[in-house]
Design brief:
With 234 residues, the chain is mostly helical. Among the domains are: 82 residues, no CATH class; 67 residues. Helices cover 78% and strands 2% of the residues. It is built from 10 helices and 2 strands; from the N terminus they run H-H-E-E-H-H-H-H-H-H-H-H. The radius of gyration is 30 Å and the shape is globular. The chain starts with 5 loop residues before the first helix and ends with a helix.
Length: 234
């Protein structure tokens, strides 16, 4: 037998593999159809889940947008037909509470549901319901989304500061200084810790604020100067 060249060898092997594949598919036609159909079914389900998730995400986004429109609505005479307006503040508060409660209940565990919980907590603070606010902020802090959760932690630290719960507040805010998020910066976390320690550890609080006085960010520098001045008066 003449020796095959490298190209011919590869061509012959390819032909043999193709022949084997054709023979296998002929002999196992039912199995191929069954497993091929199963693979196609899995692919179809995967696409369905993807598009369903995209759809439900858009639905949740729309629901959040609608709730925020209620939250930001005007009170008094409507300036035009396109502006959402309520006759009284009480009417607006009732509608806002319902919008965010419905959102938090229907989409519990989602980012939109957790944002609704955050707004419900803020509204609870506005109405003097501190225990309810603390409970909702804890739910947000434990949500699993670091950006949304950090907002809940920052709010909890402020509540703990007012209640004298320094240790609880420190355990939440110190990690945020080391690992800031898109919603809570290192500076914000530092201010919160300084405020928390202002009474029990004033020297440490000043030590935290001093470097911020020379920040090249104007608002941060001014806030640090003001905070230090307030501590000096107290």
């Amino acid at each position: 037998m003449d020796r095959l060249t490298r190209k011919e060898l590869k061509t012959d092997r390819f032909a043999v593999e193709v022949q084997h594949s054709v023979e296998y598919m002929s002999d196992h036609r039912r199995q191929v159809i069954r497993w091929g159909g199963a693979a196609l079914a899995v692919l179809v389900v995967a696409f369905a889940i993807y598009f369903y998730r995209q759809h439900t995400h858009n639905v949740r986004q729309d629901a959040l947008f609608s709730a925020l429109q209620v939250q930001n609505a005007n009170v008094g005479p409507a300036p035009n037909e396109y502006t959402l307006t309520f006759s009284t503040l009480a009417e607006k508060d009732t509608a806002t509470q319902k919008a965010f409660t419905d959102l938090a209940t229907k989409y519990a565990g989602s980012d939109e549901g957790n944002i609704a919980e955050y707004y419900l907590a803020i509204n609870a603070i506005d109405h003097g319901k501190a225990p309810e606010a603390e409970k909702r902020f804890k739910a947000v802090a434990d949500s699993g989304n670091k950006d949304i959760g950090s907002l809940g932690k920052l709010a909890l630290v402020q509540i703990y500061a007012s209640e004298g719960k320094t240790a609880e507040g420190e355990s939440l805010i110190r990690p945020l200084i080391d690992h800031p998020t898109a919603t809570v910066s290192k500076e914000q976390a530092t201010f919160a810790l300084a405020h928390l320690l202002a009474k029990s550890k004033p020297q440490e609080a000043r030590k935290l604020l001093e470097p911020l006085r020379s920040s090249d960010r104007g608002p941060v520098s001014r806030a640090a100067v003001t905070a230090l001045a307030d501590m000096q008066q107290k």
